[in-house]
Design a protein that fits this description.
Blueprint: H1 2-18, H2 28-40, H3 44-57, H4 62-74, H5 78-90, H6 95-111, H7 115-127, H8 132-148, E1 151-162, E2 173-176, E3 179-184, E4 194-209, E5 213-228, H9 230-235, E6 246-258, E7 265-277, E8 280-295, E9 301-313, E10 321-325
Antiparallel strand pairs: 1-4, 2-3, 4-5, 5-6, 6-7, 7-8, 8-9, 9-10
Helix pairs in contact: 1-2, 1-3, 2-3, 2-4, 3-4, 4-5, 4-6, 5-6, 6-7, 7-8
């Protein structure tokens, strides 16, 4: 069988150059079947050559890219397997084919010892899963990789229109204790329309771990940016987009450890950072935090969090403050 398959490679090469199948020889679908037989027999080299012929006929053939990824995986070429699986993923819109390509890319990334990239491909696989079984298996795999991966990250963002980007008043009339008074609010104090964009990025890295504890170094960046509409700029001509923007950045150190019954944990953390508002520094801060988590059942936990934060105003020392949260 293997010798027959090798002989058919020359036939497929001729088909690829012609761009179509010869009527009395091997069709492209037959070539795909032959490639799967080659993979089943562990002949990665033959499957690769067959996939090359298919791609010569159609560079966007997702199935051929997937065969190439499988062949590379069988041969132990994990980086090439991941790259070919990624090409297969990008070359199709079919959810099932994308699911299979993403799962293969995730396995290859894991074999490369790249857990963060593995998580990325598992996320892509999850977005194309259509059955409860697929969702469950992917979630289990993701959880296992996350526990091993020293790097943890979270990225969220939004972009939306708003009729009130500045939390302004809905009328120009000044009101005191519910009674209208003389005078009116300037344009910047009234509700201004526009577009609001937010970005929230958190990263943490496990720098030490034992059977009962772990220590993580982390950072967070949150920013809210505004673009005023033409109507808003006409209402408040001196207002700038930066006037309504805000940014928060911090760096933190957390130590979590087992405490009490099995599954119960506690943690202490130190955080330092800065906040900006209206395009200028607003305040610096330092925070001491503690948290406690108690497992009530397999699916239920009870959590507590407390912190004390000291803020130093960027302009006025009289505005310094200490905030306690219990």
């Amino acid at each position: 069988m293997r010798r027959l398959l090798r002989n058919l490679v020359l036939v497929l090469a001729g088909l690829a150059c012609a761009g179509h199948a010869a009527p009395t020889q091997l069709t492209l679908n037959q070539a795909r079947q032959m490639a799967q037989v080659a993979l089943a027999h562990g002949d990665a080299a033959l499957a690769w050559r067959l996939a090359e012929g298919l791609l010569a006929a159609d560079p966007d053939d997702a199935g051929a890219h997937f065969i190439m990824a499988q062949a590379a995986s069988v041969a132990g070429a994990h980086a090439q397997a991941r790259k070919s699986a990624a090409r297969a993923y990008r070359s199709t819109d079919a959810p099932r084919a994308r699911l299979q390509a993403a799962q293969l890319a995730a396995r290859a990334a894991w074999d490369e010892e790249r857990p963060t990239l593995t998580q990325l491909w598992l996320r892509r696989a999850a977005t194309n899963a259509s059955t409860d079984g697929d969702v469950t298996r992917i979630a289990q795999d993701y959880g296992a990789v996350r526990r091993v991966n020293p790097l943890s990250f979270r990225l969220a963002g939004s972009l939306r229109p708003s009729s009130n980007v500045n939390n302004g008043a809905d009328t120009a009339l000044q009101t005191v204790d519910g009674i209208p008074t003389e005078g009116s609010l300037n344009g910047a104090a009234q509700a201004l329309s526009g577009t609001v964009g937010t970005l929230d990025l958190s990263l943490s890295y496990r720098i030490a771990a034992s059977q009962n504890s772990q220590t993580r170094l982390g950072t967070r960046l949150y920013t809210r940016q505004v673009r005023l509409s033409g109507e808003a700029q006409a209402l408040a001509p001196t207002a700038r987009n930066a006037d309504f923007a805000s940014t928060y950045a911090d760096i933190s150190l957390w130590h979590d450890f087992a405490l009490g019954a099995d599954g119960n944990t506690a943690g202490v953390g130190l955080t330092a950072g800065r906040a900006w508002s209206g395009g200028s520094a607003s305040y610096d801060f330092g925070k001491l935090s503690a948290r406690r988590s108690i497992r009530l059942s397999e699916a239920t936990r009870l959590g507590f969090h407390t912190s004390v934060e000291a803020r130093r105003d960027a302009d006025l020392a009289s505005q310094d403050q200490t905030i306690a949260i219990f």
